[in-house]
Amino acid sequence: MGSRTSFFISLSIHAVLFLSYYLVRNLNPENFSEQIKLSLTKGQIPSVHFSLPKSSGEGPDTSSDSGLAGTPEAEIERFKNEIHFPPEALEQRLESDCSWEVVIGSNGTARKVTTIKPCKYKVFETQFRRSVSSWKFQLPEGNIIIIPVSFRIESDE
């Protein structure tokens, strides 16, 4: 391929990109960074990626928990993901399975916590009660939920 042909192709690509940039920017300037991406790497063919902004053109959220949103099951999972493994139990490699019944009070707080299956070690009970005392559930007052927690140390072995 001759140098004139290469120059013409390069000029054409740049002109299309330049016009696309201004056309897209003028249509919706606040979302421009989400709509077009140009990746150039030395010695490779340039790649252009176009995409719609996340807020338009999509249906409802299809995440795995979206069908459970606002349900006791979803709240239990949200809460369980916020319980931290006590550092002192980790140092001693302690593990236990426990369960609690929680009565939801006003403003989503835990009004009453009853142990259903006691923990093997008190450190887990303390950690759970500390976590539940500061948690705000998104459930109506009077709901009763059972929260099973498995304090386990996962290893790569």
Task: Name the descriptors.
TolA/TonB C-terminal domain; 2 domains; three-stranded antiparallel β-sheet; alpha+beta; elongated; two-stranded antiparallel ribbon; 157 residues
Report on this structure:
With 157 residues, the chain is an alpha+beta fold. The chain folds into two domains: 3-50; 67-151, TonB (TolA/TonB C-terminal domain, 2-Layer Sandwich), CATH 3.30.2420. It has helices at 3-27, 32-35, 72-80, 87-92, 122-134; strands at 36-39, 47-50, 96-104, 110-117, 144-151. The strands form two sheets. The chain has a three-stranded antiparallel beta sheet. A two-stranded antiparallel sheet has the order 1-2. Residues 31-36, 47-53 and 55-66 have low confidence and may be disordered.
What can be said about this structure in brief?
The protein is an alpha+beta fold. Helices cover 36% and strands 21% of the residues.
Strand order of the largest sheet: 4-3-5
* Rg, alpha carbons: 27 Å
Mean pLDDT: 76
- Number of DSSP strand runs: 5
User: If helices are DSSP runs of H or I spanning 4 or more residues, what is the number of helices?
Assistant: 5
Oligomer: single chain
Strand content: 15-25%
CATH architecture of the largest domain: 2-Layer Sandwich
Within CATH, the superfamily of the largest domain carries the name: TonB
Domain TonB C-terminal: 82-152
Transmembrane segments: 6-24
InterPro entries: TonB_C
Protein name: TonB-dependent receptor
